[in-house]
Design goal:
7 strands; 21% strand; 4 helices; alpha+beta
Length: 152
């Protein structure tokens, strides 16, 4: 009598069924990771913008630059357009985009008037935050729409 080696058809079907069940359970968890990654990317940019605004303001205060009205200050070799002591939000990349560094390289930015909207890419335009220049004697307003509903 010869001894045969291998798997029976039943064993193979059972393994395929088990893999199918595992895939059905695990796949939705992996699909949700792109939303979490997008939210993490946007929260990182939000933190960078808040920190850049505070640093530019501190830099302007120390140097006596642009504390009232408009003007410029220099940070890390970049000229930052200022308004009311904080970075401006112009579309030419000299305000908060220059202070935060790299916003226009890795994000989609929409500037208009006194505000700038930042999105992770052109297909997720509701996953945003909006930077609005500072009013006289106030800090800039930063409104976040970063949540799982907007970033999915």
């Amino acid at each position: 009598m010869k001894t045969q080696k291998g798997f029976t058809l039943i064993e193979l079907v059972v393994v395929i069924v088990i893999l199918g069940i595992l895939a059905a359970i695990a796949l939705p968890r992996f699909i949700a990771l792109d939303t979490e990654a997008r939210m993490g990317k946007m929260n990182g940019a939000l933190g960078a913008v808040k920190a850049a605004a505070a640093l530019a303001h501190a830099n302007a205060m120390v140097k006596g630059d642009a504390l009232a009205g408009s003007g410029t200050t220099i940070m890390e070799g970049a000229t930052i357009a200022m308004y009311n002591g904080y970075p401006d939000a112009p579309s030419n990349g000299t305000g908060i985009t220059a202070a935060a560094g790299g916003l226009t390289d890795y994000y989609v930015t929409y500037a208009g008037g006194t505000s700038m909207t930042v999105a992770p890419d052109s297909t997720h335009t509701s996953c945003t935050f909006v930077y609005t220049v500072a009013a006289s004697g106030a800090q800039p307003a930063i409104v976040s729409n970063i949540n799982s509903g907007n970033c999915s």
